[in-house]
TrEMBL record:
Domain (Integrase catalytic): residue spans on this chain: 142-302
Pfam families in the cross-refs: Integrase_H2C2 (PF17921), rve (PF00665)
Organism: Rhynchospora pubera
One GO biological process term: DNA integration
Name of the protein in question: RNA-directed DNA polymerase
GO MF term list: nucleic acid binding; RNA-directed DNA polymerase activity
Alphabetical list of SUPFAM superfamilies matching this protein: Ribonuclease H-like
UniProt keywords, alphabetically: Nucleotidyltransferase, RNA-directed DNA polymerase, Transferase
InterPro entries named among the record's database cross-references: Integrase_cat-core (IPR001584), Integrase_H2C2 (IPR041588), RNaseH-like_sf (IPR012337), RNaseH_sf (IPR036397)
Keyword Transferase: yes
Length: 434
C-alpha cells in the first residue's frame, strides 16, 4: 500500500537544503543585502529582532526570549525528539510548539510544522479519541402512509431468559403510525422472521413497500431474500455498526425493554407474559412525532381502556345512551374522518422531522471521504463484545476507501486488496495522514 505524502502541503523535510537564515547571516557577517529592493527593506526591518553571537543566529520573541535559529534538517530532529523522543509525550502541535520554544529553538514555519508532525504521527492517530460529532447531516426515513414501511430488529440474548426459555424478542414498527408488533423466541432463525412477518404484518395490514433491518444473520438469509422477492418487498439493511439508520426500531426496543422491567417481579423471569401488555400500552399512548396514538391512526378511534369500563368516562356514558343506529352512524363518521386524521398526523411527522433535523445538524461536523483515501477504523464496533488488552489502540488501519455509498457508508480494502469488513458508517472512520 502506497502511503503518499499529504498533497498540497510543504514540510521542513522538503526544505532541508533551503537555509532560511542565510540572508540574515550575510547581513550580520558581511553587511550584504539582496539586490531586490523590497527584499532588502524586508531583511533590514526583520533584522532588528535578530542578533548574531558566537557564530549563532538568535531571534527575540515577543515575550523577550532569545531563541536559537535552526535549519530545516535540525528542525526535523528537534520535532522528532520533542514529540516521540526520550522525554517525548506525543503532545499535540500547539504543545509541541510551546515545548520547543521553552527549549530555545525557532524557525519560520514552527507552528505549521509542529501541527503537521503531530497529525502524521501513526501512534497518535491510532490512539486518538473517538470523534463524537456527527459526520453527515440527518437523512430521516419518510413514510407516506400507514404500513408502507416497517423497521424490524432483534433484542437479545436476554439474561435471564424467561420461565419458558425465551431469550430473544423480534419486533417490527410501522414508520407512519408507530404501530408495533413483537414476539418472544428461544432462538430466532430465518424461518421465524418470515413466519413473523406473514402472521403479524402481511395477513393483518397488507404487503409493505419496504422493510428496514440491521445486519443480523436471521435477516440476511436466502429464505428472507426469497420472501421479500416473492412479495416484491424492498428489504434494506442499515449500515453496519450504525443503529441510527434503523432508528425507529431501536427507539421502540428501549420501550419494549423498559416497560416489562417495571412490570415484572424481582426474578424478571415472567417478562414474556408482559409483552402483550407492553404492546397494548405502547399502542394506546400518544407518540410525540404524530401527536396521536398508534391505535387511533389504525382504527380511527381511541381504544376503550379497562378503566373507562370500571369508571365510565364521558364518551362511554354518551355512547351507552345512544340507540344502535346512532352508534353505527357515529362509527361511520369516525371512519370517514380517518383519512383527515392521518393527513394531520403526516403534517405533524414532517414538522417533527424538521425539528429533529435542525437539532441534529447543529452538532454535525462534516466529514466525508473519497475513493482512494486512507482512513482508520474505530476498533470498538469491530471487536464487538471482545475486550482487548487495556492498552490496545482505539483505531486500526490504515485502510483504503474502495467505494462510497449514499447515506455516509463506505466499503474498505486493506493493503492486500481484501475487504476486511462489510460497508461501515463514516461515523466510525477518520482520515489517516501518511
Amino acid at each position: 500500500m502506497n502511503l503518499e505524502e499529504e498533497k498540497g502541503e510543504d514540510n521542513t523535510k522538503e526544505r532541508e537544503d533551503e537555509d532560511w537564515s542565510k540572508p540574515f547571516l550575510e547581513y550580520f557577517q558581511q553587511a550584504i543585502l539582496p539586490k531586490d529592493k523590497s527584499l532588502r527593506e524586508q531583511i533590514r526591518k526583520r533584522a532588528l529582532r535578530f542578533v548574531y553571537v558566537n557564530n549563532t543566529l538568535y531571534r527575540r520573541s515577543y515575550d523577550q526570549l532569545w531563541l536559537q535559529c535552526i535549519s530545516g534538517k535540525e528542525a526535523q530532529q528537534v520535532m522528532r525528539e520533542v514529540h516521540a523522543g526520550v522525554c517525548g509525550a506525543h503532545q499535540s502541535g500547539p504543545k509541541m510548539r510551546l515545548q520547543i520554544k521553552h527549549l530555545g529553538y525557532c524557525w519560520p514555519s514552527l507552528v505549521s510544522d509542529c501541527e503537521r508532525h503531530a497529525r502524521r504521527c501513526h501512534a497518535c492517530q491510532i490512539n486518538g479519541d473517538f470523534i463524537h460529532q456527527h459526520p453527515n447531516p440527518l437523512h430521516p426515513t419518510v413514510a407516506s402512509w400507514p404500513f408502507d414501511m416497517w423497521g424490524t430488529d432483534i433484542i437479545g440474548p436476554i439474561d435471564p431468559p424467561s420461565a419458558k426459555g425465551h431469550r430473544y424478542i423480534l419486533s417490527a414498527t410501522d414508520y407512519f403510525s408507530k404501530w408495533a408488533e413483537a414476539e418472544a423466541y428461544k432462538e430466532i432463525r430465518a424461518e421465524d422472521v418470515v413466519r413473523f412477518f406473514k402472521k403479524h404484518v402481511l395477513y393483518r395490514f397488507g404487503t409493505p413497500r419496504r422493510i428496514i433491518s440491521d445486519n443480523r444473520t436471521a435477516f440476511k438469509s436466502i429464505k428472507v431474500y426469497h420472501f421479500a422477492h416473492q412479495h416484491k418487498i424492498d428489504w434494506r439493511y442499515s449500515s453496519i455498526y450504525n443503529p441510527r439508520a434503523n432508528g425507529l426500531a431501536e427507539a421502540f426496543n428501549k420501550t419494549l425493554v423498559r416497560l416489562p422491567r417495571k412490570m415484572t417481579r424481582k426474578t424478571y423471569r415472567e417478562w414474556h407474559e408482559k409483552l402483550p401488555e407492553t404492546l397494548w400500552a405502547y399502542r394506546t399512548t400518544e407518540r410525540t412525532p404524530t401527536q396521536s396514538t398508534p391505535y387511533s391512526l389504525v382504527f380511527g378511534v381511541e381504544a376503550v381502556l379497562p378503566l373507562e369500563v370500571e369508571l365510565p368516562s364521558l364518551r362511554i356514558a354518551i355512547h351507552n345512551e345512544m340507540p344502535f343506529s346512532k352508534q353505527a352512524q357515529l362509527r361511520l363518521e369516525e371512519l370517514e374522518a380517518l383519512d383527515e386524521k392521518r393527513l394531520i398526523a403526516q403534517q405533524n411527522l414532517e414538522l417533527y422531522r424538521a425539528q429533529m433535523t435542525r437539532a441534529y445538524d447543529k452538532l454535525t461536523r462534516p466529514r466525508t471521504f473519497q475513493e482512494g483515501e486512507l482512513v482508520l477504523v474505530l476498533r470498538r464496533p469491530i471487536l464487538g463484545r471482545h475486550h482487548g488488552p487495556k492498552f490496545s489502540p482505539n483505531w486500526e488501519g490504515p485502510y483504503i476507501i474502495d467505494r462510497v455509498y449514499e447515506g455516509g457508508a463506505y466499503l474498505l480494502i486493506d493493503k492486500d486488496g481484501n475487504h476486511p469488513m462489510t460497508p461501515i458508517s463514516g461515523r466510525y472512520l477518520k482520515k489517516y495522514y501518511a
